[in-house]
Design goal:
The chain has 7 helices and 9 strands. The strands form 2 sheets. It has a 7-stranded mixed sheet with strand order 3-2-1-4-5-7-6, with helices on both faces. It has a two-stranded antiparallel ribbon with strand order 8-9. Helix 1 links the parallel strand 1 and strand 2. Helix 1 packs parallel to helix 7 and helix 2 packs parallel to helix 4. The longest helix has 14 residues. The N terminus and C terminus are likely disordered.
Length: 252
């Protein structure tokens, strides 16, 4: 597996002194997938290390292939977690995701999904570090401290994502009204609209190029990675807010 050390594209913020004495704070990206969240944090000013159980050759930063919770637990036991100033986690959620509950289970497809939100939170609390847990709209049991969507950043997909913040707080931004529908087929009827459906591979779904443009992601052309990713604009916003309001002091 090739480890990519480049920070890739983006415009990282200027080096900022932190409470851990680093010029550029280090962030641990758990369940990192193809690096949508990671790229946003890097643009905000973090050095990012990823962890994902799958091989992710398109991930644009150094990463460890393995179980994310086992890796986090090992870092806590060894004390190496002290290298980090912040942790982001996107644990599996599919058994409580709206699309899965409303479609997969109703169709009797019977796929078994993991729900690792609670054990992820438990380990994150043990680190003593500020963190963010990301989940899509659905039934995952997290606090919705932040809810972000593509329209807030001028993107071509709505893609609502909720974030539970641990060890720090910020003002919740106002949601921006949508300009229309998501383009595609619904129950046999086609609807046009300004947004593409950044999920699945059925009829009316966007092309790879359309997905890349809608998400603001250029470094992977794998549909599965694009449909699972967080738009980097979301975590760039979170990272900049955190660095501006928390890093120079002690996080709340």
């Amino acid at each position: 597996m090739t480890q990519q050390a480049s920070l890739g594209e983006g415009r990282p913020a200027a080096a900022t002194p932190t409470r851990r004495g680093q010029l550029r704070p280090r962030l641990l990206d758990l369940f990192s997938c193809a690096g949508g969240a990671a790229m946003g944090y890097a643009r905000a000013g973090f050095t990012v290390d990823g962890v994902d159980i799958a091989a992710r050759p398109n991930y644009p930063f150094p990463y460890h292939q393995g179980d994310a919770l086992e890796r986090l637990a090992a870092l806590i036991v060894s004390g190496e977690i002290e290298r980090y100033a912040f942790v982001h986690a996107s644990p599996p959620y599919q058994d409580k995701y709206t699309l899965t509950v409303g479609t997969n289970q109703s169709q009797g497809w019977g796929r078994t999904h993991e729900d690792l939100v609670a054990p992820t939170r438990d380990l994150l609390d043990r680190t003593g570090l500020p963190y963010a847990i990301e989940q899509p709209n659905g039934r995952a049991e997290i606090r919705k401290d932040l809810t972000l969507c593509g329209e807030m950043f001028g993107l071509g997909g709505i893609r609502h994502r909720n974030f539970e913040l641990g060890g720090w707080i910020t003002v919740r931004p106002a949601h921006v009204p949508h300009r229309g529908r998501v383009r595609g087929w619904r129950h046999g009827e086609y609807f046009d609209g300004p947004y593409v459906a950044a999920y699945g591979n059925g009829g009316g779904k966007p092309s790879i190029a359309e997905l890349q443009a809608a998400m603001g992601i250029t470094w992977t052309d794998v549909r599965e990675e694009l449909t699972e990713a967080i738009p980097p604009a979301y975590t760039e916003w979170i990272g900049r807010v955190f660095l501006t309001s928390n890093v120079l002091g002690v996080a709340a």
